[in-house]
Amino acid sequence: MRSTAWLVYDHTGLDKCANRPIRGVCWTIHRAGVRLLGSTAIAKRISDSAPILVPLLALAVLAAAWGSHPATAVVVVLDLFLAAAVLAALHHAEVIAARVGEPFGSLVLAVAVTVIEVGLIVTLMVSGGDETAALARDTVFAAVMITCNGVVGVAILTAALRERVVSFNAEGSATAFATVVTLATLSLVLPTFTTSKTGPEFSGSQLAFAAVASIALYGLFLVVQTVRHRGLFLPPAAAEAADDDHPTPTRAAALRSLGLLLVALVAVVGLAKTSSGAIEDGVKSIGAPQSAVGVVIALLVLMPETLAAWRNARRGRTQISFNLAYGSAMASIGLTIPAIAVASIWLDGPLVLGLGATQIGLLVLTGLVTSLTLLPGRATLQEGGVHLIILAAFLFLAFNP
Questions:
Q1: Whole-prediction pTM value?
Q2: Do residues 306 and 93 lie in contact, with contact meaning Cβ atoms separated by under 8 Å?
Q3: If residue 392 lies in a helix (H) or strand (E), which one and from where to where?
Q4: Contact 275/74 with Cβ under 8 angstroms?
Q5: Is 333 a member of any domain?
Q6: For residues 47 and 91, what is the distance between their CA atoms, to the nearest angstrom?
Q7: How far apart are CA 148 and CA 133, in angstroms?
Q8: Of 95, 185, 205, 243, which residue is 20 to 30 A from 396 by alpha carbon distance?
Q9: How many CB atoms lie within 10 A of CB 34?
């Protein structure tokens, strides 16, 4: 009994085992313990190094595949690296958010993704000719619908399953969404009804006005969100207190994560673009319109924000999820339109920005439903389900117009 009790208490050392009558059993247990500890240490080392290695590996894979039209098997590998890069981007965004606090943390992820996405759009439009005339419109509108209905719907649904009734700051969220709707109307709806040019296009002066208005509105919102009324965009005190037990990352760790976040996001957007050829072939094979390709790419590019919003909603930080959703939508419009306005100097073909009747109907429906969702400052499963159904309608009509 003494030996058995001792084995339960101490099974890792041989020195105490030497004078025991069951020395062989003790040696076997010791070796198993060493193997277990060794495996744990290796697993921990891999886990610690993965956020650093994955973005670099994904970037290397992107460099190797860039400019090619990969086969289906290669596309599967690219998509696996894309998913890994999304998870790495989420990790580094959370490190930065823990260092700088909210709402700066969600702002970093939203702006970083959008800046890289805008660069990709401009590059494709400059080199794509008439075939990419509506690329900016399709991508921006898809981003608005995915964030305002998909990300918000997922956040509400996740939080409501946890808390039954979701609480958030109505003033801050309504301010953000009002800015999104204004930007979308000025940039995507008005070109359909202006008469200076034939078709859903802006004239040069109208495009310049839309670009200046977009920059002004987005810049004003950033001041309101981060300086003047920062408290309107923070989660409730209870949700903040739940994260107080996590140590704050050092400045060096935050800077390293910032660099790796940019690398991961470049890999995400680049791998999505590299896979676009296979996506385009798949879209054509089912008879869907060309605009559906932009929707699929937008879904891939917005994966980091969607996953980050879901994880925050699970922690009861729905307000942070809303900051991510509306911040991404605002950045997508507020940065894309000015960039397109500048790029139009080099664009030879038309620049189609105006939405069609179906798209305008979905945008109006999104505005009405979101207003009713945000104004009470509380939401349930029903509101989350309504937003997700609107997203499903957008996706369905994108492939079956």
A1: 0.75
A2: no
A3: helix 381-399
A4: no
A5: yes
A6: 12
A7: 25
A8: 185
A9: 11
Side chain identity at 93, as an amino acid letter?
A
Q: Is 166 helix (H, G, I), strand (E, B) or coil?
A: strand
Task: Report residues of the chain scoring pLDDT below 50.
Answer: 1-30, 34, 36-37, 238-245
Entry field: residues in the chain: 401
3-state secondary structure of 200: coil
E strands present in 116-267: 166-167
Which H or E run contains 379?
Answer: strand 378-379
β-partners of residue 379 are 166
Q: Has residue 61 been placed in a domain?
A: no
Write down the pLDDT at residue 258: 84
Cβ distance 173 to 326 under 8 Å?
Answer: yes
Cα separation, 273 vs 279, in Å, equals 9
Round to whole Å and give the CA distance between 188 and 210: 10
Rg, Å, the chain Cα set: 25
Structure confidence at residue 18 (pLDDT):
44
Quick one: tokens of 254? 């935050």
What is the identity of the amino acid at 94?
Answer: E
Is residue 52 included in any domain, yes or no? Answer: no
Domain of residue 209, CATH code: 1.20.1420.30
CB 58 within 8 A of CB 271: yes
Quick check: helix, strand or coil at residue 248?
coil
d(CA 30, CA 26): 6
Do the Cβ atoms of 339 and 218 come closer than 8 Å?
no
One DSSP character per residue, 60-77 reads: HHHHHHTT----HHHHHH
Identify the domain containing residue 109 by its residue range: 101-243+275-399
H or E segment at 239?
A: helix 237-242
Asked if residue 380 is part of any domain, the answer here is yes
Count: domains in the chain? 1
Q: From CA 17, how far away is CA 24, in angstroms rounded?
A: 9
User: CA 64, 303, 129 angle in degrees (round to 5)?
Assistant: 60
Tokens of 311: 């994880």
Q: What is the pLDDT of residue 360?
A: 96
